Amino acid sequence: MSEEPQNNLNRAILQTLESLHAAGVQQLAKPPAAPPPPASSLQQAGTPAPASLLPSTPAPLSALTLNDLQTEVAACTLCEELATTRTQTVFGVGNPQAKLCFLGEAPGADEDRLGEPFVGRGGQLLDKILAACNLDRQDVYLLNILRCRPPNNRNPTEQESQNCRQFLERQLQLIAPEFICCLGAVAAQNLLSTTVTIGRLRGKLHDYRGIKVVCTYHPAYLLRNPSAKKETWDDMQMLMREMGTPVGE
Ligand code: URA
Ligand code: URA
Asked: Which ligand is nearest to the CA of 225?
């Protein structure tokens, strides 16, 4: 398995290029050699740059490691209500080079208390689903659309999802998975920027910037509607088949 880090790096580079392309970048120019400083420099040290030279939009997040990104997330106050009501941010957990990520909606009470995604009742069901696929938490990576718990577990607002999107995208770039499994409508609709229902998104493969995406029901929904477990098992079988490690066939 000594090729894994290289493959991971290649996927990371490819995904970065794909996201630049999605953002409209058509070509990458080699940066010109820095010109020598002018003899009489107009901008003296300590003089602020004119506003016209400052970037008008925030630079994309450039954290180089998941640890650095986690530190940025822990200090985030973009969503005032969430930042003032959370116990802690819930970043993500698992194998930082995972081939497969599971994407949920937002931390609940247990996750807010423990700082880890999917540790409540839904998480226990997720563990069983993983086990049925011959996987455990250390094989995959678990993360959410939001990194803070919405009060009373309400759905994320559009603004909250937007605020957290930069973290989600950077986190996925750094992990560079080949597959994402979206758990529930909020995760699936947010990631894929669609309003199509989870019932219609499930059962087929989707694409997110070159990453294959499978959508299925949220474990909390399965706890309330056990008869839907059959469909989730169908979705997991499709996912495992695509990954080259079929189960239950
Ligand atoms: N539900 C989610 O969507 N994510 C969690 O982390 C926990 C419960
Ligand atoms: N509605 C949701 O939001 N999620 C599900 O998993 C199923 C129905």
From this structure: 2
Domain encompassing residue 149: 88-243
Q: For the chain, how long is the longest CA-to-CA vector?
A: 76
- Ligand 2: residue whose CA is nearest its atom 1: 185
Q: What is the pLDDT along the chain (249 residues), one digit of tens a residue?
A: 344 555 655 655 555 555 555 554 555 554 444 444 444 444 444 455 554 454 444 555 789 999 999 999 999 999 999 999 999 999 999 999 999 999 999 999 999 999 999 999 999 999 999 999 999 999 999 999 999 999 999 999 999 999 999 999 999 999 999 999 999 999 999 999 999 999 999 999 999 999 999 999 999 999 999 999 999 999 999 999 999 999 998
Is 82 among the domain residues?
Answer: no
List the 93-94 sheet strands across, edge first: 93-94, 141-144, 100-104, 179-183, 211-216, 205-208
CATH number, domain of 217, equals 3.40.470.10
- Domains in the chain: how many in total? 1
Q: Is 3 inside any structural domain?
A: no
Neighbours of 28 (CB within 10 A): 8
- Cα of 172 vs its chain's centroid, Å: 5
Alpha carbon of 168 to ligand 2 centroid (Å): 20
